[in-house]
Design a protein that fits this description.
Rossmann fold, 6-stranded parallel beta sheet, 17% strand
Length: 376
């Protein structure tokens, strides 16, 4: 079934969930509609760049068209004029049978056009689009107008669907399907005793400074080492903090790493740390892919009661959970794990969770089944 995958940027190596859809959905019978193209297309798919230069006529139409769409549809990003016709012609030429918009904000761009062309449109809510975006009354209004035009909705967690519902944004054909992980590539290996790992952008909603202070409180001077993988605006301040806390020798900051190197770290790590919090602007996680990958590699996960994380981490079974911003509780969790004489049961439970819930081959098949059944 020829599927058009809609994304804001292409190609982004870290967006493994989107890249898997592009490469494998419906046997790889896909094409890509993107807002921006960075010049790399490792999958060799037919590509339409939505933000290409406007024709002269569209430049003249733009103020009226964008203003009208913003007033009526809640967003000025809908294609119009020559660009809309060019996109419609491309979708027809590609013989697209279904559109899957990654992120709800991308669905806003294509839902009306899909309905006009009689092409079923589905979208996938993943985090920011169903948390921070809802702070905008205009986005909420746009979502409500969009929902009847959609054939179905996917979300990485029930938390996000519930969050949308509290704003009056619902769809009768909604399904929770996590992004998942390749459990055949992400597998447990020999674990390094006392090893801790945190992966992700060094940004507010990951609260790396809380992780760092908690680790210092619990592990300073003990046989324990924490590796941070990721870059971002808080990286340099966290490096300085590690030195101030006297744990510089126990913490390694790698910066961003290729996905294969992240997997190598997860394979040998005992404990995965992610102190996710709700950012001041309302931004939350959905269900972090990094946690799903950590569980697949048999990492005991210490995280927070946040967004969809409790849908993956079972407190006391495959990991531990504390409240957001509970630095003392996070430190106590690290201490508890360091003092545990035998961690094998939690390690095995972590892997079993990933196999049962997050096999991305199974989850992709579920998405395909929902789409086929809906269209049928």
């Amino acid at each position: 079934m020829k599927t058009c995958i809609v994304t804001s940027d292409f190609h982004v190596p870290g967006e493994t969930f989107i890249n898997r859809h592009i490469e494998h959905a419906f046997g790889g019978d896909t094409c890509v509609l993107t807002g921006r193209f960075n010049g790399a297309d490792p999958f060799g798919k037919p590509l339409f760049v939505r933000r290409a230069p406007l024709s002269t006529a569209d430049k003249l139409r733009a103020p009226f068209a964008m203003g009208w769409n913003a007033a009526i549809e809640g967003t000025g990003r809908l294609p119009f004029g020559d660009n809309r016709q060019r996109l419609a012609d491309w979708l027809h030429a590609q013989q697209v049978q279904v559109i899957l918009a990654e992120f709800g904000t991308q669905a806003l761009v294509v839902a009306k056009l899909g309905a006009a062309l009689n092409i079923p449109v589905f979208t996938y809510f993943r985090g920011t689009d169903a948390s921070f975006a809802l702070r905008s009354k205009q986005i909420v209004r746009a979502y409500k107008r969009m929902m009847p035009r959609l054939a179905g909705v996917f979300s990485v967690s029930q938390f996000l669907l519930d969050n949308l519902a509290t704003h009056g944004v619902t769809h009768p054909n909604a399904h929770v399907v996590p992004s998942g992980v390749d459990i055949r590539r992400f597998t447990p290996g020999p674990k390094t005793p006392g090893s801790f790992l945190a992966v992700g952008r060094m940004v507010e909603k990951k609260a790396p400074q809380v992780t760092l202070r908690a680790f210092a409180s619990a592990a300073r001077g003990r046989e324990a080492h924490l590796t941070f993988i990721g870059d971002g605006p808080l990286l340099e301040s966290c490096k300085a903090m590690a030195a101030d806390l006297g744990i510089a020798a126990q913490v390694t900051f790698t910066g961003a790493l290729p996905h294969d190197q992240v997997r190598a770290h997860l394979t040998t790590t005992e404990t995965f740390l992610q102190h996710s919090v709700t950012a001041k602007n309302g931004n939350t996680e959905g269900l972090p892919t990094a946690i799903q990958e950590a569980l697949a590699c048999g990492c005991i996960t210490l995280s927070t009661w946040h967004a969809g994380i409790p849908e993956a981490v079972e407190h006391g079974i495959n990991g531990l959970l504390v409240d957001e911003w509970d630095e003392q509780g996070f430190a106590s969790g690290i201490t508890q794990l360091l003092n545990m004489s035998d961690r094998s049961a939690m390690t095995a439970a972590a892997r079993a969770t990933a196999v049962a819930k997050f096999d991305n081959a199974v989850l992709l098949a579920k998405v395909e089944t929902v789409i086929r059944d809906t269209i049928a």
